[in-house]
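Good morning N.,

You mentioned wanting to compare the apo and holo forms, so I went ahead and generated the holo version with 2-phosphoglycolic acid. This is what I fed in:
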Amino acid sequence: MSRKRIVAGNWKMNKSLEESQALITEIRGMVRDEHRGQSKFIVFPTFLALPSASRLLEGTGIGLGAQNCHWEESGAYTGELSASMLRKVGVEYVLVGHSERRQYFGETNTTCAQKVKSAIRHGLTAVYCVGETLSQREDKSYFKVIEEQISEGLFGLDRKEFAQVVIAYEPVWAIGTGLNASPSQAEEIHAYIRRLVAHQYSEEIAADTSILYGGSVKPDNANELFMCPNIDGGLIGGASLKARDFIDIAKALR
Ligand code: PGA
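and this is what came out, ligand included:
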């Protein structure tokens, strides 16, 4: 995937099936009526809402993503879904390694690497999330933490596979807290991630990689974040549950 400006909504464990359909319908209408830019929209509803979301989004240009997948194709993995199952209901993107999955479900860079591989093998684009905790920011180990998350999670991919990756930098201390990283804090890490990719693959591949910022992005702080040269858009949690805010955030992404 060449570098794109993306605004993605991670709905987490929110919205019933009916509420999800209503929100998608609302977003769809606003995108049709108001969206003038080149940016790409992606929504990540719950698993339950994916098949109907896929139908509602057909022909709109809005991408559909799942919040997680398993790395195996099928088998005795109670409660899980595979990338190929997701693909078959029209999913195009999958979040891998969101900090809530790392924190509450024991995901590691190693399991994330397996999920990314499987997602790509089945034709999905992996939106791979990285970010440091507050204590890692305070003890200044965050460059090392991010370097490990990126290299262990992604650098087993070959160049062709890597083209199916979007990276999201989400400092854990900024998620759902109302404390967003300052534009300079975010830009510093985004530039660092791009350098890691250039070093591993090439300058050209690094320049082609979309790197999103996530963590308390709102309509009133999106503009200053999205002006940074290495920030290609946002992964939005809370504010993506309101169509108006989600679209207003996208408008900051010119
Ligand atoms: P937030 O969540 O925008 O509510 O901080 C972002 C995320 O977790 O992806």
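The chain has a mean pLDDT of 96.

Happy to go through it together on a call whenever suits you.

Best,
F.
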